[in-house]
Amino acid sequence: MIQEHQPQATTSAGWVHDIRKTGSVQFIILRTMEGLRQLTITDDCSKEVKAHLQGLTKESAIVATGRLQPAAKAPGGTELLVQTLSIVGPAEKILPFVPRDSATVPLPKRLDFRSLDLRSPDHQLMIRVQSAIVQGIHVHLAKEGFKHVFTPCLMGVPSESGSAVFPVIYFDKEVFLRQDPQLHRQLTIASGVDKIYEMGPAWRAEQSHTTKHLCEHRVCAVEVAFIKDEYDVMRVEEGIIRAAVEAAALIPGVIPPSLGKDPFPIFTLDEVRDIVAKKGHVYDPLEDLDKETERVLWEYVRDTLHRDFYMVTGFASRIKPFYVMEDAKDPRHARSFDVYCKGMELSSGGQREHRHDHLLKRITSAGMSHESLEWFTRHFRFGVPPHGGFAIGIERLTQMIVGAENIRDCVLFPRDPERVVP
Amino acid sequence: MIQEHQPQATTSAGWVHDIRKTGSVQFIILRTMEGLRQLTITDDCSKEVKAHLQGLTKESAIVATGRLQPAAKAPGGTELLVQTLSIVGPAEKILPFVPRDSATVPLPKRLDFRSLDLRSPDHQLMIRVQSAIVQGIHVHLAKEGFKHVFTPCLMGVPSESGSAVFPVIYFDKEVFLRQDPQLHRQLTIASGVDKIYEMGPAWRAEQSHTTKHLCEHRVCAVEVAFIKDEYDVMRVEEGIIRAAVEAAALIPGVIPPSLGKDPFPIFTLDEVRDIVAKKGHVYDPLEDLDKETERVLWEYVRDTLHRDFYMVTGFASRIKPFYVMEDAKDPRHARSFDVYCKGMELSSGGQREHRHDHLLKRITSAGMSHESLEWFTRHFRFGVPPHGGFAIGIERLTQMIVGAENIRDCVLFPRDPERVVP
């Protein structure tokens, strides 16, 4: 935002990544969101610049102006020959740690001083990638005619699955943080909006301490009406993943998973059973995918098909929530699918049950009361078309693209059972 | 998503807005997110179409194919001469109310059957406008080099202002839903990301029953570093509002407030005092704007300047939170501003205090303990540049653009002290 001070001068603003000296020439390596830049200060610089340079500490925020010139050894092939220098945000001389060493610092200390931690090159790249994913998805879905909507985070009734949710004290009531904006997305379809998406938070009150789970995460959740079957939904999801990965791939230094030119391979659970059987593993298609099946399937996709993204369809109805449509040909299976990348689940989706009578039957089968869900099911009496959708975890997708080991490194300020500060 | 059944046939999918008969010709007025379309069924249609037509009810979801032809009296100047018709989501014959009459239905009933209510023309337009605002802002800020970030909704420490927040039971701890992602946006700036924004939810646990307040709303929150002063921030906000309003204005039927060609007028509070004094109202610039001052100022802007959007700057430091920077020339005033549209506050913003020592002084002045905020202030020891930001209420902006009286009509599923369902 700071304007240029003189004609033909270039302004660089950022953080002092490093300070070096070679003979009488000083170099400041400046970190900006667009990458590193070399600032070069020769002995004939002004007294003011010399004075500023004297007290300059690493990680200070500075603004420099000068002339940009080619420099073969500098990052990006140019350097800024400094004419003016301002220290606009000085850093203390002793830092808890230097950002570029943060990978060697224990996680609790990294999180205590998260603003330093996030200045590391890996985190800076992650931030750029996640932003590119989010902006890329918005542009793609706008082009495809999808409307962005906001559905509630506060749920007046407990979650559909009965699993772990966070209670909220809402005046004199107890309400809950949504696990997934699923039911309200369906009500939005019922409201006459046939192609919708939402980018927003979701919560899981699980005492999990893995590198894959967060208590607060974000999803891109999509719902689309007037579908023929769940394959229409899968095509929409593939389009979004392609748009997100392609947007991230434009950032220098990013080597995302390979999208491949052909559509993502799709496996029914019967096919999965046959594939893993050849490797000596027994899998029952009426059970959820176990870890070993996931691993063997990924090896097959990688070694035989040379692909990174793939989908699995036809999960057992009994392990799926009541709102998922059964397959008419074999009601033991649901019109449900998962998207995988390199053996890791990225997303779940499927066709929803839009027929009021079938919906009530599914609720009975799930052992739930019609009364507790009447606030939801009543809307299906007044004209709801066939529809389906999915939710993609934004941090999970970021993790796959940047190759981070811990999902906590794909969120600015992670929330897990131990951490809610900063 | 449903594919065309025959060559040269057009497919229309949507909801039955109305059914009419003129002689032997039947008309179905179909509602889609792109507007109304006339389906025309002549006497020589197929038996299948006739059979479907027999039982067709208003608000059913249908798919029709046929030939598109000019029709002067039809919406959009064309009609679909129907060849095939499928009722994919039948509606019950007796509806709680007809969507287009929903304005006459009491609010509680409208919310109980929200999916019908949202099918009214006003709501359908609101949904399109809000989506255009959101997508327009993303495109604009991406173009301007802003990174989209996600900051936490769950706060481990109570809000900075001590005002009403919703407590969340977080395992064995009590945490809080954010009022505003303010402090974490500042920590993101401190993390070396100099132009950021976030589009997400915020909550206020206020027992207010006005037509302007929601307990759950959404903001577009922006923070930008390396600023000269708060006027840099105001220019960013004006750019966003212009992008949002221009995106909404592309939708037929939308008559948004006027942006004007020149920059939004800006008033200091001293100027506001002088303007309202001429109308006989006494206002003290060291107090917050009272309702009468807001009203008189708006009349002046409307009648004298012929503008809709305007800004007010220089609020009293003592009524502003600790993180707002004082004006060095007169510390009784803060580097803070509000954006107004037609007398209604849209947004608050300002320059933040980035100097660690000044920040601690502000905390002392605010009567808060340094210890309770050390989790936040520690980050300001390690190089934080001058920065500022603001938050725009998305529902409030929608309300101004569509001219809705009640903000509940600018959100799909509103949450207020009485309502958390559906």
Q: How would you explain this protein's 3D organization?
A:
Two copies of one chain form a homodimer. In chain A, the strands form three sheets. In chain A, strands 6-10-11-16-15-14-13-12 form an eight-stranded mixed beta sheet, sandwiched between helices. In chain A, strands 1-2-3-5-4 form a five-stranded mixed beta barrel. Chain A is an alpha+beta fold and 422 residues long. In chain A, β2 (25-32) and β3 form a beta hairpin. The two termini of chain A are 28 Å apart. Chain A is built from eleven helices and 16 strands. The mean pLDDT of chain A is 95. In chain A, 28% of the residues lie in helices and 26% in strands. Chains A and B meet through β1, α3, α4, β6 and β7 of A and β1, α3, α4, β6 and β7 of B.
Task: Note the topology.
Two copies of one chain form a homodimer.
Chain A: E1 10-22, E2 25-32, E3 35-41, H1 47-54, E4 61-70, E5 78-89, H2 107-112, H3 114-117, H4 121-143, E6 147-148, E7 154-155, E8 167-170, E9 173-177, H5 182-190, E10 195-203, E11 216-225, H6 230-249, E12 266-268, H7 269-277, H8 291-305, E13 309-313, E14 336-341, E15 344-351, H9 356-365, H10 374-377, E16 387-393, H11 394-402
Parallel strand pairs in A: 3-5, 6-10, 12-13
Antiparallel strand pairs in A: 1-2, 1-4, 2-3, 4-5, 7-9, 8-9, 10-11, 11-16, 13-14, 14-15, 15-16
Helix pairs in contact in A: 4-6, 4-11, 7-8
